[in-house]
Specification:
Layout lengths: L11 H17 L2 H5 L2 E9 L2 E4 L1 H14 L1 E12 L3 E11 L5 E12 L5 E13 L8
Parallel strand pairs: 1-6
Antiparallel strand pairs: 1-2, 3-4, 4-5, 5-6
Length: about 140
Amino acid sequence: MEQKLPLPPFSLETAKQKVQLAEDAWNSKDPNRVSLAYTVNTEWRNRSQFINGREEVVKFLTEKWQRELDYKLKKELWAFTDNKIAVRFEYEWHNTEGQWFRAYGNENWEFNENGLMAKRYASINDVEIKEEDRRVF
């Protein structure tokens, strides 16, 4: 059976570890690597878009990182329970015209018993920024 450590129920230490692993995977900008943290039939809400299953996750992330250039993400543990984690995050990227953006948001994650994320609900807002106002994550 497929597993992704650490497994629930989460402690403060393992919840922080899960968040760091997610941040590292997303910063790789490798859609296939990222998708392996999710169940085969994962359910996402990303802004107003609904994504179902790993194949759609890979497609979504491939298109995302073709548009969002030099993407860099920072996640922070907000809260956790037995098999759920809430994070706040921000990330920066620029478009093909060179306009930089910072995205702020919150995610709610639900994991199955094997440590794979079954549900991901993300609320995200983008703000245009000047290149000199970028943060170094």
